[in-house]
Amino acid sequence: MLPFENIPDDLVPLTAHFKHLLTYATPIQPLFFFLDSIDQLTGTADKVSWLPTRMPPNCKILLSCANEEANPTVSREYHLLRRLIDIDENFIEVRELGEDLAMNVIKRWMNTACRDLNNFQWRLVANAIAKCSLPIFVKLVFAEICRWRSYTRPQETHLANTVMDSIMMLFERIEKQHGRILVFHALAYITAAKSGLSESELEDLISLDDKVLDDVYQYHMPPVRRIPPLLWTRIRNDLPNYLSEREADGVNVMNWYHRQFRDTARERYFKNLNMAVYFHSSIADYYLGIWGGGKPKPFKFTEIQRHRFNLTDKEGSADRKVPIQPLAFTNKEGVITRYNLRKFGEMPYHMVRSRRFKDLYEHVLFNYEWLHAKLSSCPLQAVLADFEDASINTDDKDSKREMMLVADALRLGGAILALHPNMLAAQLIGRLLPEIGGNPNIFMLLKACDNNGPKDCALIPLNHCLHTPGGPLKYSLEGHQFAVFGFVLTNDLRYMVSISTRFITWDLSTSDLQRDVNPGIEGIMQQLILSPDNKWAAAYSNNNQTVLLNMLSSEFVIIENPFDGNNCVTGVFLLNQNLFIHTKRKWASFDMRGNFIEHFDAVDVDDEWEILMMYMFEPTAYHIIYWSGQLTAESGRLRIDSFLNGSQATPLSYHSVLTSNKQWNRVFCCTKPNNYSVSEYKYFHDEEKNIYYWKHQKDLDCYDNYEKEALLQLKLDQRDRFLIGTAGKGFIVWDFNKENRIGIGAIYLPLPHSVRNISTRMMTSNSMMISGKHDYAVAGVRKNLYVWCLQSRQLVKVLDAHFGRIIQLEPLTIGNWNCAITSSIDRSVKVWNINNIFEPVHAGFSIFEA
């Protein structure tokens, strides 16, 4: 009896609210949840991540999910569940029932229904079950044999051998019983709908379908040209439990309860492509509202009607009593009460599939009123999905280009439009004004923005004043309320996790915010790290709290400082099954529930050394980097202590900087006193003596006198081909690909005279990346991006990237992506397309004549 007003609307707080409600279970009133076909949930991209991975007492959840090896898309939720719940005993595969169990189930059902069969009929059932004993097939067989009588003729007692054939038999029987055209069209409309149809919508569609009405009203003239409601009710009664009700766009809709029914209906009713186009086009017309609000629709009298009723006219028109379909519904005062979500969800889908692209462009994609209304009621991703769907299904290159320009403009302004959809006209005009020439659809859209935009926002720009799509800025990811102090890319490079006072996960392919988790801690998170399997994330804050986050379920644990008050947390590290927290002198391990396991003191270290960072292979194999606690070049001494299988390797001493490859068996560092030349060391194992040690391999090539300039950071690129050093006055690049190297020795790329790199902490400074084609180097210094040509070694571009200092820069070069990602104290993360950095960009103060 809790109030409904306290139920959150957003997914993240709603998930937390649901998990809190589970704790109300008691031994007297336990909670049991049965969730069937969870992979068919609609309305959210995360179909299973909201499920709790740890159940409170007196609470159980049983759910079913499809797993089809031949169709990875269908099995996506199943594999995500396997990662969420890694206990094999919790998964039971539902196989075929087998002949004995299937026959036993059917006999039990027959007894419950007070039915029986004769011996010949039972043999037919046994033969069918021998060919297929899937649960859905058994259910279809039972529904069929319940209709048999002992005196039914043998030719009428027929059973199919597959699920699809059984459903085909069911459809054929209903068509014979209720009329083929009526059943054909009714079930085809349900199958064609994107998310199902409500009862009233289906009756409206059939009432607009003259093919059905001509068949129903062959012998009489109805006073109202509309389908009698009782006809559909009879059909539905003969489809018991095969049509299920669910919620879509705020309305209860009917849809097939099982995927096999939808597939069979497509095979039966959409085999003719023209028929599929007919049904999609009819639904598009309905949501477009062509015949709504009392507008009569013309029709032709059948020959039988003209002869029977002595009609001289061949054609007539009649009001079908279907509603109008506005973008929004208003009250008497003209105030919007709700938006037409059914229209937003269905109409673009059917226009694309009926190939009505001209109507799609005019009424949807390049229509200001549509875009404004949908942005006001739906997430930005729902609007972008219409553009993506249309782009995939059209071959018109000019239209594709226009669609992508508008979609990219919406992405660039996504952070503003999510909060203030009334800024749509200003965003579109400010970004797309230079593109009106040669793009008639964009011209049509901007003209509507100019005419209709002021009613929503009076600030309409006269000139081009914002980043244009196709320029260097690909996305601006804005959602943090404080500076973004760190971000990490997942292994597949599709998602990015960023931190400030919260964890935000972004989909880099769409710029969509995937997950926003606020742990509610005090202070700013200082370091972010992901586990190797990307299931866990951890960060510590400047008030000595550590947050362990399950990336799949958004559940988190806050771990207080496991040490005394004199030992502040200075770093964290994650494995798939363990979390490690360290201070300057100690470190401790935890399990993935946040339970303390054990703590360790630094081994063989006197008071002058402090733990700078740790790298763990497993709890018994790791590297610890110690430092002297001084940032100055003279005092900044460091060393690596390595432990493997209980043995400690000979420590490697160095100064200033160090970096390693991904396996941590090859490092680059400065070991020569008073010299910043870089040396390579490899990690070896002497099997005879059973000792591990670091062995010097070579000293890297250098340019003239570079070893006199202090190095602040070393970093390897994603593929370990380039080594990049950050110095005070510029950057040094080494290319390890001897077959196609960009130069001989080290390449020095100087910064402008008044610009300098600075250290933010030991071995950390401004970063540089190499472009995907290895032709440019991009660095983030202060609030700018600096771009050098590696061939000429000249600074060729300086881009004003952020409003505040750039904190981190990382490359995103995979496939066709050639991008740089930057985070800043201006609270934003931006994705830059390096390919477009040298494209001509329209200046913010240029004037364009519309």
Notes on the protein architecture:
It contains 21 helices and 40 strands. Helix 12 packs antiparallel against helix 14 and helix 18 crosses helix 20. It is globular, with a radius of gyration of 34 Å. The protein starts with 10 loop residues before the first helix and ends in a 17-residue tail after the last strand.
List keywords for this structure.
single chain; alpha+beta; 27% strand; disordered C terminus; 21 helices; 8-stranded antiparallel beta sheet
Q: How many helix segments?
A: 21
For the termini, the CA-CA separation is 60 Å
* Cα shape: globular
In round numbers, the mean pLDDT is: 88
* Spans of at least 5 consecutive residues with low confidence: 840-850
Largest sheet: 8 strands, antiparallel
Beta-strand fraction estimate:
25-35%
**What's the β-strand tally?**
40
Helix content percent band:
25-40%
The protein's oligomeric status is single chain
> If you compute it from the alpha carbons, what radius of gyration comes out, rounded to the nearest whole angstrom?
34 Å
Query: What structural class do the secondary elements suggest?
Result: alpha+beta
